[in-house]
Amino acid sequence: MSPRPPARRLRLGLPRRAFSQVLLMQVTIAAGVAVLATGLFLAPLSKQLDHEAMRRALAIAQTTAQDPQIAEGVLTTEPTTNGPVQREAERIRRATRAEYIVVMDRRGVRWSHTTPSEIGAHVSTDPREALAGRQVMEIDDGTLGRSARGKVPLYDAGHRIVGAVSVGIAYDSVRARLISAIPGLFAYAGGALAVGALAAWVISRRVQRQTRDLAFSDISALLAEREAMLHGIREGVVALDRGGRVRLLNDEARRLLGIGDEAVGRTPDEALGEGRTTDVLTGRVTGTDLLTVRGQRVLVANRMPTGDGGAVATLRDRTELEQLGRELDSTRGLIDALRAQDHEHANRMHTLLGLLELDMYDDAVEFVGEVVGDHRVTAEQITEKIQDPLLAALLVGKATVAAERGVALWVSERTRLPNGLVDPRGLVTVVGNLVDNALDAVAGTLHARVEVELRTEGRAVVLRVRDTGPGIPADQRELIFTEGWSTKEPPAHGKRGLGLSLVHRLAERQGGRATVGTADGGGAEFTVVLPEALPEPEPDLEPALTGSAAPAPEHTPTAAEEETR
């Protein structure tokens, strides 16, 4: 015989499905709330009924004390079982269904009582508070048992205290009212519990549909996997709700956009400010693989609506790719320039060889001097006016490229730029982009010329780049600094329209501005003002001596002078 399989142990616990767990928890909560509400209702109900009984007893006592026959009988008659005070008090007691009405004089002697033999005897409780003119409400034990009691002073026609009136209501009647109210209360609680259970079932069914009948452990695992995926991918993810507010940001989106958790719950307009990035995230600009610039980063954005009315936007960092693309463009330009220069160099070498073969040595020396001198003069002119080595090197290189492209690149006579810029790399980016755009604009035109002017005004640097190209139409000058705007064909590696946008962003980041107008004689003139491009001057630590002449500043040789030496 095969061995019997071991009996399965019965495991008790919560059901696994989210629907069953939610239903069980909500029914339990509804039952607990019903029991708690019942207890909270019953606890003050007893005190409330006691208070109502005492107030009723006090009201009957006040009504009895206001009867003029009661006060007059106390003053003019004796306490007897058939006296006017006893008859009037019994009449009021039967009319109000009170347990007893006791009228006493100032000595505490009863003038009325439900038991006639007690008339003429002293009361069993202390009457001093009522005889002192104060009203009393209490629950106490007397000769008739436990009762809710009210005591008031008894005044005569002259408003003098002549006695007191004590009225009692049987406490058993109050307890009976409380006990009789409990079944109805439990009936209401049961009805509320049934309604709560029905509502819990409806809510649980909705939760079941929305969670696709998954267990809480499965939902928790999915959330953990989602968090790991969102924060692990190298793409920025921004989730927006139906109101257009940011509800989720992963780590890459925080890095690319330069924002933190404070942006959650706010709209992109509030978190990022105006700009193309905000327009893409909010859906005001539609399309796929939209280029946008955020700070110094070039981003590729895509936005997809979700079923709940919100949207999810993804951001990819294209800064390095865009830099490589610009470097590729520059490299291609340099290759073309080198090809032309190689051709020109071959022509010069052929000329030099011919001069040497004809034994025209002096002419050969003069020819070589002219060729070398042209390049040296250009470098010397630039380095004399621009002391920053990065900008000087940039313009020397651009001059060579411009010459090979048939464009005259001039540095204005007004150009004067000292060394020690706060952000030389940023200014190199600005100048390089503007010069490249100007060279592209004038390429292939007659008498093509680009002029660069760099000068200082206090701590500010003013840059102007003029060209002899077709210029920028007046209706497009507001759009020229927008990401993606360009009049040129896109290159093979991607899209255009980012150079001028970067210029505008770099100028704004330093508190400056970038504008475009019309140059003298036609063409475009770009102007960039950087208010704090130069560092603050250091304070003079040694005060000048009175009457002494200031020493002449030491002369720093330029690169051209060093080369001449």
Give short descriptive properties of this protein.
alpha+beta; Beta-Lactamase; Heat Shock Protein 90; five-stranded antiparallel sheet; disordered C terminus
Based on the coordinates given, report the CATH architecture of the largest domain: 2-Layer Sandwich
Estimated helix fraction: 40-55%
Uncertain ranges: 5-12, 490-497, 541-565
| Overall average pLDDT | 76
Structural Rg: 51 Å
Net shape: rod-shaped
- Strand order of the biggest β-sheet: 6-5-9-8-7
Question: What would CATH call the class of the largest domain?
Answer: Alpha Beta
Tally the beta strands: 14
The fold-level CATH name of the largest domain is: Heat Shock Protein 90
Number of helical stretches of at least 4 residues: 15
Distance between the termini: 112 Å
Q: What is the total number of structural domains?
A: 3
Question: Could you say which structural class the secondary elements and strand pairing correspond to?
Answer: alpha+beta
Strand proportion, as a percent range, falls in: 15-25%
Q: Give a short account of the largest sheet.
A: 5 strands, antiparallel
CATH superfamily annotation of the largest domain: Histidine kinase-like ATPase, C-terminal domain
Order of helices and strands: HHHEHEEEHHEEHHHEEEHHHEHEEHEEH
Keywords: ATP-binding, Cell membrane, Kinase, Membrane, Nucleotide-binding, Phosphoprotein, Transferase, Transmembrane, Transmembrane helix, Two-component regulatory system
Membrane topology: Multi-pass membrane protein
GO cellular component, one term: plasma membrane
Organism: Streptomyces monashensis
